[in-house]
Amino acid sequence: MISNSYPNSNFGNMAPSPSIPKGTILNSLIKFMQDTLLEFQNFYVNEMNDSEEEISQFVINFFSALSKSESFIFCKEVSQKPTKGHARRADFGVFMHHFNRSPFYTIEAKRLPPPSKSREKEYVIGSNSKKPSGGIERYKLNLHGIGLNESAIIAYVHKNNFIFWHNQINAWIDELIQSNKTSASIWNTNDKLFILSEISPDRLCKFESTSLRKDGTSINLLHYFINISSPSS
Description:
Low-confidence stretches: 1-19
Mean pLDDT: 85
Number of domains: 1
Radius of gyration: 17 Å
Shape: globular
Number of helices: 4
Helix content: 25-40%
Structural class: alpha/beta
Strand content: 15-25%
Largest sheet: 7 strands, mixed
Strand order of the largest sheet: 1-2-3-4-7-6-5
């Protein structure tokens, strides 16, 4: 759950402007996400029965409340339609203006560890190739972040530390690199997470990867690991 008070913030009344260059907004967005996830981590009080969806609702509420004076808008469960197949919903979409039809940035969220053994590797890849549910997998299959060069994944870390999950995720990707013949997409070392910065040790850490998609394009992914474990765990 969230503690009863939000940090001080200048909410303002400025509407997002469609005239601001995307590069400028992207830099502002990345700084905002980093700063706001730290605020969220400070104010979030973990309850072990909180689901991935419940935490994401808290996150989007927090992002929306603190971005009132920013030049972008956060929306939850944004639909994106691939060239073939049914539309998929990214956990969060970020828009430059209320009237934009497509987000300029998408964010997936995954809980670490997942709630069940069958979903153990879901940060990377799902257990059913006919219904892709993996965080990185969906970006590689061009189901999320369609037409975008940049997007992100947020990991809600309940147990173990950032080093453990960094190593574990990269080990799963190594397994996929070795078994490319049976995979729907080609995995390589660029899919592995490389640390960018320990924004705040034991609270928030940022990684980066680059994934080759099915259509031959690439997408750069930022990975934010946020510690939401209870103080006693």
